[in-house]
């Protein structure tokens, strides 16, 4: 299960909306053991594409240092799908580097953004519940 | 002189859960090869068969991506920190065409 404070959820969705028409991406910092996000790190999509994303490596390093420096870890990655559902694509699965991460998809296909989260372990996708905290 | 190497979460299980390891080497390539020699579980995850940096890994010396320096030949010193992070990429690409669910 991924636990998302409302502030982190809203920051993530806002970053995805601002990134239109391209896909947007970012990292989530938090507690790996409990799957609780505490910080949203919006990052630049170096691919600048509506169909692909590449997290800016420098911003990734900065996010990693900030998370580790505050006693947390990077616990996941989020990105938007602008015209498709919030489900990992074959590209997402092929390039999922860490089985301990939460892979969050924000679909902007419909009027209301849809947030879903997955674990991807050795190419196998498993959806997990997302629990929203009030703050 | 040993260099401090910061490991990403995905590689820590191969190093007994450590976040940071001190590894000897004078270049990025030497440090990474020494790291893999010490923790063979990392084999093929940092350096590829040809001795080049793995395609899906980013290596930094302090704040700089070594791909924009001299790659595996980038010199390192005792005051440098070498950080390994997975490259994070993906995207909808062909997602609308076919899914295996």
Describe this protein's structure.
The complex is a heterodimer of chains A (135) and B (101). Chain A has 135 residues and is α/β, with parallel strands linked by helices. Chain A has one domain (2-127): Cytidine Deaminase, domain 2, CATH 3.40.140. Helix content of chain A is 23%, strand content 39%. Chain A is built from three helices and nine strands. Chain A has helices spanning 6-18, 57-69, 90-94, and strands spanning 2-5, 25-31, 36-43, 53-54, 73-81, 102-107, 114-121, 124-128, 130-133. Chain A has a six-stranded mixed β-sheet with strand order 3-2-5-6-7-8. Chain A is globular. The two termini of chain A are 17 Å apart. With 101 residues, chain B is of the alpha+beta class. Chain B is 11% helix and 25% strand. Chain B has one helix and six strands. Chain B has a five-stranded mixed β-sheet with strand order 2-1-5-3-4, with helices on one face. In chain B, a hairpin with a 2-residue loop joins strand 3 and strand 4. The longest helix of chain B has 11 residues, at 28-38. Chain B is globular. In chain B, 34% of the residues are buried. The chains are: A alpha/beta (135), B alpha+beta (101). The interface between A and B is medium-sized, with 41 and 25 residues.
């Amino acid at each position: 299960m991924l636990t998302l404070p409302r502030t982190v959820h809203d920051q993530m969705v806002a970053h995805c909306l601002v990134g239109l028409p391209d896909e947007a991406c970012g990292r989530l910092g938090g507690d790996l053991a409990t799957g609780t996000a505490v910080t949203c790190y919006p990052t630049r999509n170096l691919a600048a594409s509506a169909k692909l994303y590449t997290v800016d490596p420098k911003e990734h390093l900065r996010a990693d240092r900030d998370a580790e420096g505050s006693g947390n870890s990077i616990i996941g990655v989020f990105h938007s799908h602008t015209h498709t559902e919030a489900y990992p694509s074959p590209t997402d699965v092929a390039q999922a580097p860490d089985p301990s991460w939460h892979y969050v998809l924000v679909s902007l296909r419909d009027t209301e953004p849809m947030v879903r989260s997955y674990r991807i372990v050795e190419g196998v996708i498993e959806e997990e519940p997302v629990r929203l905290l009030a703050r | 002189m040993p260099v401090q190497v910061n490991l990403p979460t995905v590689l820590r299980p191969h190093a007994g859960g450590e976040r940071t390891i001190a590894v000897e080497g004078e270049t990025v390539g030497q440090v990474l090869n020494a790291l893999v020699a010490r923790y063979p579980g990392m084999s093929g995850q940092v350096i590829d068969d040809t001795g080049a940096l793995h395609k899906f890994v980013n290596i930094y010396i302090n704040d700089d991506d070594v791909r924009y320096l001299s790659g595996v030949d980038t010199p390192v010193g005792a005051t440098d920190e070498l950080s390994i992070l997975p490259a994070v990429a993906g995207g909808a690409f062909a997602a609308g065409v076919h899914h295996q669910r």
